[in-house]
Amino acid sequence: MTDRTTPEDEAYSVAPGADVSADAVIGAGTKIWHLAQVREKALLGSNCVVGRGAYIGTGVTVGENCKIQNHALVYEPAHLDDGVFIGPAVVLTNDTYPRAINPDGTQKSASDWDAVGVSIGRGAAIGARAVCVAPLTIGAWALVAAGSVVTRDVPDHALVAGVPARRLGWVGKTGRKLEPSATEPSVLVCPDTGEKYREDGDAIVVLDGEEPRA
């Protein structure tokens, strides 16, 4: 890989064959692999990984420590917070009513539609080949199962799966499904960290530890 510099003279790496716009801003330590494309005015934070053949659209914003795996398509105006995982071949769409032509048969241009985006909160993970249909928001630390089609907002810490995706439970910050506490009624516990949560309607509340940041 070839080291390049940001305007602040901090190095990032671009593999041969990747196409990174000179107008993109790339954080220090970020690695962009073969055949990936990063478009104009995209903003990628530090220590990210953009896999082989991935696409980052014009003006997309990506936080620090994100992983965007091979052949994922992140269309503008998507926003990814810090620590987001995008699995292989995931698609974040940007057109609710896609058409190649207008009703009169003329080809659509950029002025004939308004792009809408997918926003993904801190620490969330989107499994391989999932499709997220904009506009929608996926909450912090949520987990979207592989192959799902997400058509509505996903709460913080929710586990969703299916076509269309529906909530199957809740997950902690490690991605493990929360389990009922053996000693405290109505309390859910992360089996890895021991953090405690309680359901509150269609949301979940952290009882100890840091509150999730959207």
Structural key phrases:
single chain; 214 residues; mainly beta; UDP N-Acetylglucosamine Acyltransferase, domain 1; ten-stranded mixed beta sheet; seven-stranded parallel beta sheet; 27 strands; 0% helix; globular
Model description:
The structure is a single chain. The chain is mainly beta and 214 residues long. The chain has one domain (2-175): UDP N-Acetylglucosamine Acyltransferase, domain 1. The chain has strands at residues 2-5, 11-14, 19-20, 25-26, 31-32, 37-38, 43-44, 49-50, 55-56, 61-62, 67-68, 73-74, 79-80, 85-86, 91-92, 118-120, 125-126, 131-132, 136-138, 143-144, 149-150, 158-161, 166-170, 179-180, 188-189, 196-200, 203-206. The strands form four sheets. A ten-stranded mixed beta sheet has the order 1-2-5-8-11-14-17-20-22-23, with no helix packed on it. Keywords: Acyltransferase, Transferase. InterPro entries: Hexapep (IPR001451), Trans_hexapeptide_repeat (IPR050179), Trimer_LpxA-like_sf (IPR011004). Its EC number is 2.3.1.-.
